[in-house]
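Q: What changes when iron/sulfur cluster is included in the input?
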Amino acid sequence: MSRNLFQGVEGELDLSESLRRMNATGFSPLDCTAPRHVLKGHGFSRANAGIYREAAALAAEEAPIAGSQFPQGLKPEKYHKAAASGTAKAVPFQNAVLSQCGEAASRRAHSTDKLREECGVVAIHGHPDAARQAYLGLYALQHRGQESAGIATADGLHLANIKGMGLVSEIFTDDILAKLPGQMAIGHTRYSTTGDSALLNAQPIRVDSVKGLIAIAHNGNLVNLGNVRSRLERDGAYFQTTSDSEIIVQLIAHSHAGSLVDAIADSLRQVEGAFSIVMMTRDRIFAARDPRGFRPLSMGRMKNPDGPDTIVFASETCAFDLLRAEYIRDVLPGELVMVTEDGVTSRQYATGVPQSSCIFEHVYFARPDSRIFGRWVQESRDQMGRQLARESAVPADVVVPVPDSGVTAALGYAEEARLPFRMGLIRNHYVGRTFIEPEQRVRDFGVRLKLNPVRNLLEDKRVILIDDSIIRGTTSRKIVRMVRGAGAKEVHLRISCPPTISPCFYGVDTPSKRELIAANNSIEEIRQFIEADSLAYLSLGGLLNCCQGEARTGYCTACYTGNYPTEWVDVEEILPATVGL
Ligand code: SF4
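A: The predicted holo structure follows.
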């Protein structure tokens, strides 16, 4: 689809028009390398400075941590200057802009005003068909990333690695899985936030070093990558990708530690940010979490009647269910686990750092049938709904979730408020990722493709709508309009977390502060914008209580408070809307 889109402007190359079409059309992540390829091949050099500037503006505005993405450590504003001159740094600038544009287009095309997790990881040790087990694990984790997927396997001697753009089931056919022999595997499914979205940055990433072949799959984002990367480059590291995950492997490769496990521990201590990683050499599997434990990672076991158990790791425990594995425990924050033929060993490579696990995993990302950070997600969401009902009750006839993510909280709300729960909005699960909207100007068409109101449940009713977040506010307004259009007398929107006021730097694709509606408007202003009769959010204290199990987890709440648990954040991203516009 996108290739046709760009071929349509071939010969009369006009990047503005290309960008406009990219943004106005369902641009597939499968094709996000297309603009770079097609435009480069058809005279991009003829584009004038104004077009460069527009591309840079779009790229800088859209890419969540653009400042750290541009090559040579330059900030976007320097590219604006380069663009204005029309010549300076033309080639790196052009490549960077196109890379960013591809990613931005991909993001826009998928924009349902929902935040996106970017990765799920899985690892298998000691199974005769490890690749297929990894495939099943990734299949269960597909909600954590749909842009690319990969599986690496090892048989004690060799390390094979296959990755591709698209869904797990599209990439890994029987024929492909047959090319991945071995009893060990790691797998990754990705929605990119760092590095461009091309196949090059798909994972697992494999690096051949003096320490042997190492493959890595990473969930999360590093925040000090610029510094570490330049230091490694000065030491002679050659990076294959722009992904932050490769930094960890390069650190291992350049470590002076005597053993591989020491080198890994040494490297993990040097990076800051969020990482739940699985790694594989020819004969070992490693799993580790960053010292703050931002992202989940659990360990499980498949019993083998004829031999040692298969050990599995996965971002979420829902993967264990499909594998028929039993949950053993979470990998601890700051823990490095190693699995060999001799069994499982572990060490704490970092201690004394307060835990700050991502609370938004409980609100939205993780599947409700997963247990993360020591607590069932379903239980947390049910409690969020109940607490929301206690905090912001309103006379109504029916409670309706925005499917799918609002369903569990809506059930809790309805029970607590003693109101009927009704599926007044039906989600179309079959909207293809490459669907071309036939008439973009039809108002709210994108949302109507995905959701449809059930008129007889909504007509003449006072409706409480339950959703898990408002990001820019545009989708919420469309949904409120849709429910009202189906005959609802009143529409009261309730959000099962506090207002999102600050972007995330730890592996969640949030827009910059300028674009977050709650960062720049009061709740009353948001209510007016989304055209609801009333609007209320769950309080921060309420949310924290709802996500506390026996484990007494420490949570990151930075997107609700602006208080970041790490020192490294991108200042550009946290400027309010009134600055620099
Ligand atoms: Fe999660 Fe928000 Fe913290 Fe990011 S900033 S890790 S989304 S709680």
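Observations recorded in class: The radius of gyration is 24 Å.
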